[in-house]
Amino acid sequence: MVVMPFSLTNAPASFRNLVNEIFADFLDIFVVVSLGDIMVFSSSEEEPVKHVASVLQRTRANNLFSKASKCVSHASSVEYLGYVVSSDGLKMHSSKAQQILNWPHPKNIKALVRLSL
What we know:
Elements: H1 11-22, E1 31-34, E2 37-40, H2 47-61, E3 77-80, E4 83-86, E5 89-92, H3 94-101, H4 109-116
Antiparallel strand pairs: 1-2, 3-4, 4-5
């Protein structure tokens, strides 16, 4: 298992580099990695089992572990990094969109400039 002390400022970047190296030949083919999350995707109903097995074999071979309670399988859509990913594409999660819609309208130039930053 890979464990890094919280005091190391480069820990997230180091972990990402490790995971990118481990899954280099899978990336953007059927795997997307973001910090501690690994998303496995497939274009057919037959591929997921093979893809997940490949990822699990690779994690086991490199002493990395998954938390079963965080795993989702056979889903037609998943929430990932604030977006909903599905066969229809990538959409902003509805709660994020609602926050933007509820954002107060700027009432003066200063508020408008602040909004654009």
